[in-house]
């Protein structure tokens, strides 16, 4: 089962908006070229990010802009914007064999640990801001430009 790339793709979108918004018109086509994906996927994610009030998208060729500072945008904000809020991040198997000694107890052993992992995951996302990635991104871009 593949994992969702919506968080990573959305972070890419926000980093590109931050980096290019005063240099280029940051359109879905422009972003799709950077991500190497279909502009429809970008427009879908931009719509979700806009609904969460993380970006503003101007119709036509107006481009996209951040609506908050990078310090105010956490990975949790992004995750909540683009992922299904009603779907658990991790889930125990609902279909275990009640006639098996392991099958009878596995969920009662596993679920408390899954709950803790989900809680830690959420806290980690809340502690990570877009600003922290921008610092790293700007440093790497600068180093790459110096090499060129």
UniProtKB/TrEMBL annotation:
Q: Which UniProt keywords apply?
A: DNA-binding
Q: Which InterPro entries match?
A: Tscrpt_reg_Rrf2 (IPR000944), WH-like_DNA-bd_sf (IPR036388), WH_DNA-bd_sf (IPR036390)
GO function terms (MF aspect): DNA binding; DNA-binding transcription factor activity
Domain of life here?
Bacteria
A Gene Ontology cellular-component term:
cytosol
Q: What is the protein name for this chain?
A: DNA-binding transcriptional regulator, IscR family
What does the organism's lineage look like at the top?
Bacteria, Bacillati, Bacillota, Bacilli, Lactobacillales
């Amino acid at each position: 089962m593949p994992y969702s790339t919506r968080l990573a793709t959305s972070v890419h979108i926000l980093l590109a908006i931050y980096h290019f918004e005063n240099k280029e018109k940051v359109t879905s086509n422009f972003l799709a070229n950077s991500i190497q994906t279909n502009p429809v996927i970008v427009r879908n994610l931009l719509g979700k990010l806009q609904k969460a009030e993380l970006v503003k998208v101007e119709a036509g060729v107006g481009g996209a802009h951040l609506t908050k500072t990078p310090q105010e945008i956490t990975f949790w904000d992004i995750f909540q914007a683009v992922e299904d809020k009603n779907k658990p991040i991790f889930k125990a198997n609902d279909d275990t064999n009640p006639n098996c000694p392991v099958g009878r107890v596995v969920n009662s052993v596993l679920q408390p640990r899954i709950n803790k992992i989900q809680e830690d995951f959420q806290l980690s996302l809340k502690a990570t801001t877009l600003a922290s990635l921008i610092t790293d991104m700007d440093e790497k871009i600068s180093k790459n430009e110096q090499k060129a």
